Amino acid sequence: MSQGLEFGLNEWVVDEQRQHYLHDPASVDQTWRDFFAASPSVPAQQVRATTAVRRDDTGAAAVKAVRVASLIHAYRVRGHLVADTDPLTSRSAAGHPELDITAFGLHDEDREEKFVVDGFAGQSTMRLQEVLDAVQEFYCRAVGFEYMHIQDSHERRWIQRRIEGPQHRPDRAEQLQILYRLGAAEAFETFLQTKYVGQKRYSLEGGESAIVLLDALLRRAIKDGVREAVIGMAHRGRLNVLANIIGKSYGEIFHEFEDAVDIRSAQGSGDVKYHLGAEGTYRALDGGTIAVSVVANPSHLEIVGPVTQGAVRAKQDRAADRGRPFPVLPVVLHGDAAFAGQGVVAETLNMSQLPGYRTGGTVHVIVNNQVGFTTLPASARSSRYATDVARMVEAPIFHVNGDDPEAVVRVARLAFEYRQAFHKDVVIDLVCYRRHGHSEVDDPSITQPVMYDRIAAKASVRKLYAEALVRRGDIGGEQVEGARRNYQQHLERAFAETRALPTPFAVEDIHSTGAEERTVHRAATAIEEATARQVISAHTDLPRHFTVHPRVLPQLQRRTAMLDTRTVDWATAETLAIGSLLLEGVPVRLAGQDSRRGTFGQRHAVLTDRRTGSEHTPLNALGPQAEHFAPYDSMLSELAALAFEYGYSLARPDALVLWEAQFGDFANGAQTVVDEYVSSSEQKWGQRSAVTLLLPHGLEGQGPDHSSARIERFLQLCAQDNMTVAVPSTPSSYFHLLRKQGLGHHDRPMVVFTPKSMLRSKAVTSGLSEFTRGSFRAVLPDHAVDPARTARVLLCSGKVFYDLDAHRRGSGRPDAAIVRVERLYPFPEEELRAELARFPSGAEVRWVQEEPENQGAWSFVAPRLYRLGDHPVGCVSRPAAPAPAAGSAQRHAMEQKALVTSAFH
Predict the structure, then answer these.
(1) CA nearest 215: which of 192, 250, 247, 193?
(2) Which pLDDT score, from 0 to 100, does residue 506 have?
């Protein structure tokens, strides 16, 4: 920056305003418009020269008005840096150099001079001192506002109008409401601390204003007619929220502390109390109610964010016909360290305005303890604030002092109103502290001694607020005493409920802690031929004047011919499954990277007009009686994307919810969701999901990273009938599998390893009769050989069958049967036993897989095949290896040929 310029440190203000003016003159205040209109070509660096040219009094006054406007703008942008938002430190008296009046070419002698302020604080002119008092009141008290990064001037002005005006204190009823909520929150934590010494609970002490915030948010939602709120949060404060917001009884919570829950429950072995979810009704003191729930969450902190978003989207989709946009409010509570440190936060924020994921804006609340486990912000993030990641989606950020509950109520209402007005995310940074360590058994003074000396000397926010009310004369000692009595009543009720607890179950009473594996029933999934033709015709009976891309049209036309030539391919089978489900009243959602077209150009669920770019979804043209098909291209994410679909499936059990990975191994990026939710949520939380994963799989010479969907990892998680794992080898098998899942005959997650090269293989087709008769079969027998003459039975799944069958045909080996296992879990033991019984007892059984021996299904199926007992069992595979496949296509081809040949020798 050049020296001696009139605007000094704040030259950036003029440059910024000029850019806004050039883009849209209406986006800046009148003072700036007048200034730039008078000198349209003058950049900030020439302000001094401009001032010299305009030597008349009017010109000088205009320039000074611009300086004052710059000062106001700087406070809007930088005021949060000096706001009094930290309850552990006092605001620095030194201020910020960029907010000093001298940085704008203003001086003490200007303080009493009046300037044009163009409506600031509702005034046309103000003395400089009045301007300073106003900007400090608006931007430097208990709330720090960050919103000037928002590009939309309408949004900025909307926020400004609500900040830059008189802030009225709440009336006595509101103050007593705040005091009541603080007392309830504190009472709960105090009781747990005294009754259950040494037990982890991840208390809210130091951040009790979070309960006040949620209370204010929900009361405002009730007033606005919002029908439901869904809360996602990590474990800190969860028990307090369950008790004081969701309405879960003290007795239920203390049962969990006493470990008196029924551990023989069919829900499984359960989870720790601070991971559990709940549903309830929030009841405001004025009688208003709203349905509210907390989503169950593991210790993987921020992963609950996209799960919450998915659940909210599903609830909103179900309510879409009621005419109100976004009728369910998502609220997500975060820790400061997690919000800055967990990448899934950015992924989830990125979802917020995408067509397939929008929920109309989420209110994010950072319970900012100013420390992680033992890690201070200087070691936890590179940004100034934990909230800086939210700037990427232009979310406004309100930093508020947790020791000022009235300010907390104010920003809660402002955040809700912003969400309702703009349907965008908004962030509240509740700056507070953690009275205890990461958990109650931890001593934080070991790593943060100075911080915890300050915390030990602090009174609770409830006590500070009560004292402030009395000191200001807002309420008298009688009201405070009433709040104290209410506080005591909470304690007494808690004690009474605890005394009534039953005796915990003795360990010796436990016979089984998990559900037995269930019998898999064969469901009727066939469709009428007329249904099949109706579904396919929707892809050729297109809207008038709609121009299909010339490379796509032949594919659509071939689908009609396939029904008559017994050559229904994989994509057509999928279309038949989805379309027929829609006609039977089952909504279908499909999301994934490039899933509308299909990674391999096979699906074409959404057609794009070649001339206009308009879109058409054929399966949504099946008629008014059909349900809605919602295919979406996802953002380039696996972790948040799968978590979202899991959450969606929880709240929409009537729908078939499909998540497709671009390649199967990309699911590695979503492993946390698979481990913590998909495979184990029923055992931990009694929570059922029927989310379906489509994972392209197969070793085809594409290298280590586009070959294996890691079948072994999913099978390792299989137990207690927790999910279905399938590798269908025919289009009709895939068809019946999807319909079975969609019709709800097995309400568990399903993992389907789908093909790549098989999508266009002429050998991989099914006849129409295979769709109009029968159902899914877990084992496909081999009727091409004489069982009595069979010396070897090859068991396999998926694509390798076609390689084996081609070799058998080419080499003339009538003594080898090839039996396909279409479903690996639940393992089809009885079906396999019956199939193997057709062959001589001395026939050798070999499991054949493309994957290395230490990968694929072998380690899972081996002990189960041994249990069948009547045949010797071996494995044909690639040698054990750390990578799934070779990088060379030539080497792959050699390995595949050797593997197939060895299966017959």
Answers:
(1) 247
(2) 46
Tell me if 388 sits within 8 A of 329, measured CB to CB.
no
> What phi and psi values does residue 537 have, to the nearest 5 degrees?
-65, -25
Distance separating the N- and C-terminal Cα atoms of the chain: 80
* For residue 755, pLDDT beyond 50: yes
Tokens representing 125? 């002119």
Mean pLDDT of 259-276: 54
Residue where the block lists tokens 């502290």: 433
Closest CA to 208 of 500, 461, 578, 542: 461
Question: What is the distance of C-alpha 637 from the center of its chain?
Answer: 11
Angle at the Cα of 169 from the Cα atoms of 166 and 174, rounded to 5 degrees: 145
Instruction: List the structure tokens of 69.
Output: 């406007």
Please give the Cα distance from 102 to 704 (Å, whole number): 63
Phi first, then psi, for residue 123 (nearest 5°) are -115, 155
By the 8 A CB rule, do 721 and 533 touch? no
As a whole number, the mean pLDDT across the chain is 88
For residue 478, the tally of other CB atoms under 10 A from its CB is 8
Q: What CA–CA distance (Å, rounded) separates 826 from 823?
A: 7
Output phi, psi for 550, to 5 deg.
-60, -20
> Strand runs (DSSP E) across 567-666, as ranges?
588-592, 607-608, 615-616, 629-633, 656-660
Q: What is the DSSP letter of 780?
A: E
pLDDT, one tens digit per residue, over 828-851 is: 999 999 999 999 988 999 999 999
Separation CA 224–CA 421 (nearest Å): 12
- Would you place residue 117 in the very low, low, confident or very high pLDDT band (cuts 50, 70, 90)? very high
| Angle, vertex CA 570, rays to CA 625 and CA 729, nearest 5 | 125
**pLDDT computed for residue 273 by the predictor:** 61
Which two three-digit tokens encode residue 573? 């089978």
278-297 residue pLDDT tens: 899 998 878 899 999 999 88
- pLDDT for the residue 513: 39
Task: Mark 803-815 as b/e (b = at least 16 C-beta within 10 Å).
Answer: bbbebbeeeebee
For the packed helices 250-257 and 172-195, what is the interaxial angle rounded to 10 degrees? 20
DSSP-assigned states of every residue in 482-498: HHHHHHHHHHHHHHHHH
In degrees, to the nearest 5, what angle opens at C-alpha 842 toward C-alphas 837 and 844? 90
Place of tokens 């499954």: 577
Residue with tokens 């179950």: 505
Nearest to 668 by CA among 714, 632, 722, 724: 714
- Tell me: cis bond preceding 826? Omega within 30 of 0 counts: yes
HEC profile for 290-340?
Answer: EEEEECCCCCCHHHHHHHHHHHHHHHHHHCHHHCCCCCEEEEEEEEHHHHH
Residue 631's DSSP bridge partners are 590
For residue 250, the Cα-to-chain-centroid distance in whole angstroms is 30
Q: Which range (321-325, 706-710, 738-742) has the least confidence?
A: 321-325
Q: Would you call 155 helix, strand, or coil by DSSP?
A: helix
| pLDDT bucket at 54, cuts 50 / 70 / 90 | very low
What's the pTM? 0.91
DSSP track, 636-705: S-SHHHHHHHHHHHHH-TTSEEEEE-SSGGGGGGGHHHIIIIITTHHHHH------EEEEE---SSS-TT
Tens digit of each residue's pLDDT (9 = 90 or more) over 306-365: 999 999 999 999 987 666 789 999 999 999 999 999 999 999 999 999 999 999 999 999
Q: Which pLDDT score, from 0 to 100, does residue 800 have?
A: 97
